[in-house]
Design a protein that fits this description.
Blueprint lengths: L1 E5 L4 E6 L6 H36 L1 H12 L3 H24 L5 E4 L2 E3 L2 E3 L2 E7 L3 E4 L13 H9 L3 E4 L5 H17 L7 E4 L2 H9 L6 E4 L2 H12 L7 E4 L4 E5 L1 H20 L9 E7 L2 H15 L4 E2 L3 H16 L3 E6 L9 E2 L2 E5 L16 E7 L2 H8 L5 E7 L5 H14 E6 L38 E7 L21 E3 L2 E3 L2
Parallel strand pairs: 3-22, 7-8, 7-10, 8-9, 10-11, 12-13, 12-19, 13-18, 17-18, 19-20
Antiparallel strand pairs: 1-2, 3-6, 4-5, 6-21, 14-16, 15-17, 22-23
Helix pairs in contact: 1-3, 1-4, 1-5, 2-3, 2-5, 3-4, 8-9
């Protein structure tokens, strides 16, 4: 039995049975779906993704209502997230139409300084069925209908999704919407299947039909599953977005001239969604003395006026409480402000603003605390700011606020940031990830298990593909995109070293 729980009260609102999770049967169905997706070609998959987006939109009211009941995120936030999710499906249809993601290349047979070269044609092909693990904090955009699923389906890979226990009913409705879109586009197989039980997770990663895994979640669970994927008789790629402390640094001139504005924006950023964002800033490095006083005061005022928010689940609320307790017990830490406690019922987290001495940065102060918590560290000199930053490991984001007078420090900060973070934010706030061609949502370990790839943006499709080279294969047997005269129109490809834009 699977329980659907309202985090605002802690009460179970629905209990439903799920079928026995026979991974061999699911794997067989996923293989059949993969073959159908691959056979549908780029145009067929693009039509399917657009039909899925339409099916999600048609079910908007029901999807948002159930997600709000299971997450407490609020209908305004969830409507925006659902809009992003539908857009993301359509976006990957555009990626398919474009075709450049295939990295198609043709080298015609001919003489070279190394001797005679055969006819060589290279393209990316789908891996096969993949597993996707839904995230707690985004019941749509990073869960069953989210970016991992959308990019995998675009690549031609069927999906077996592990439902997050925080929103099982939302996941089921989302899967039904995706399948309705697939049926409307003429596909008959179950291109997306679900498993619910936590005990199934390890077996799913190890199942021989699974060719890759996408995961968004904690460092502990992600590392466990990544190790299982690597230990298989035939290891598979594991793309885990895990956890890290995202840094936020403010130059002295920026703090002096617009400190209150930056403080207000930073407070909104770290408390957004009750701090349950993987891109939440966790450490703010600000100038000491008068230059940083307005910024710090704005943070204090905003946090003190904030109430406790509904957290996604009891487990997440308990983990936040434990993390906050560890931070409060650390040496060299003082409380600048706390938010209100809120009602006693349900799963809630209260905002917490701390200040730490630079020499106290160790242990829990260097680890992610998933919730509405921020640590302020002050610096006296540019060297002090860099020294503080270097205490923290790689992360998804690094944010810099700087004005013209801060250019010398900013240059050094940028040099450090681009080496340690997947996305560098300039004079902005990191808790927004756009679905776009240039977006990168990733970073060196422990932010992710694979710094080469992204889980958001067009390049997310690359995770589910592998290259194949065809040597001297007859034209009629080649993939259409590699033929001299493609039947379905040209795509961008490199021909004998020269880029042909199609």
């Amino acid at each position: 039995m699977i329980a659907s729980i309202d985090p605002s009260t802690g009460a179970t609102t629905e209990v439903f049975d799920v079928p026995a999770e026979d991974l061999d049967r699911l794997g067989e169905r996923a293989r059949a779906a993969h073959r159908e997706l691959e056979g549908a070609g780029r145009s067929g998959r693009a039509a399917m993704l657009r039909a899925m987006a339409a099916a999600v939109e048609e079910r908007r009211t029901a999807l948002v209502a159930v997600a709000d009941r299971e997450t407490g995120l609020g209908r305004q936030r969830l409507n925006a997230e659902l809009t992003r999710t539908a857009y993301q499906l359509e976006f990957f249809a555009d990626v398919l139409d474009d075709g450049a993601y295939l990295e198609a290349a043709i080298d015609h047979a001919g003489s070279t300084p190394m001797g005679q070269r055969p006819d060589l044609r290279r393209i990316l092909v789908p891996l096969g069925p993949v597993a996707v693990f839904g995230a707690a904090n985004f019941p749509f955009a990073f869960s069953v209908p989210g970016g991992d699923t959308a990019s995998a389906l675009a690549a031609g890979c069927s999906v077996i999704a592990k439902v997050h226990p925080a929103h099982p009913a939302t996941s089921l409705l989302s899967r039904d919407a995706l399948l309705a879109g697939a049926r409307a586009a003429g596909l008959s197989t179950d291109v997306v299947s679900l498993v619910y039980r936590d005990e199934t997770a390890a077996r799913l990663v190890q199942h021989p039909d699974i060719t890759a895994v996408g995961f968004t979640g904690s460092l502990r669970v992600g590392r466990l599953l990544a190790d299982l994927a690597a230990a298989r008789p035939s290891p598979i790629p594991f793309y885990g977005e895990l956890g890290a402390v995202n840094t936020f640094v403010v130059g002295r001139a920026a703090a002096r001239d617009r400190g209150a504005q930056i403080g207000d924006g930073l407070a909104a950023s770290f408390m957004l969604g009750v701090g349950q964002f993987c891109t939440k800033p966790g450490i703010a490095v600000v100038p000491s003395g008068a230059a940083g006083s307005a910024l710090t005061q704005a943070l204090v005022d905003r946090v003190a006026a904030a109430g406790a928010g509904i957290m996604l689940s009891e487990r997440i609320a308990d983990a936040y409480a434990d993390g906050a307790e560890s931070l409060l017990a650390a040496a060299g830490v003082e409380v600048l402000a706390r938010g209100g406690d809120g009602p006693a019922e349900g799963f809630r987290g209260s905002p917490l603003l701390l200040r730490a001495r630079p020499d106290a940065l160790e242990g829990p102060l260097l680890e992610e605390c998933f919730g509405p918590e921020l640590i302020v560290v002050e610096y006296d000199t540019d060297d002090d700011a860099l020294t503080t930053l270097r205490r923290f490991g790689p992360a998804l984001t690094a944010t810099i606020h700087a004005d013209d007078e801060d250019r010398r420090l900013a240059t050094r900060l940028l040099d450090h940031a681009h080496r340690t973070a997947g996305r560098v934010v300039w004079n902005g706030y990191p808790t927004g990830v756009a679905v776009a061609w240039a977006m990168h949502h990733g970073g060196p370990y422990a932010a992710t298990t694979n710094a080469l790839h992204t889980s958001v943006g067009a390049s997310a499709i690359r995770r589910w593909l592998r290259p194949v080279c065809f040597q001297d294969v007859p034209q009629e047997l080649l993939p259409d995109e590699l033929r001299d005269v493609p039947e379905h129109g040209r795509t961008p490809r490199r021909v004998s070293g020269t880029l042909d834009r199609g």
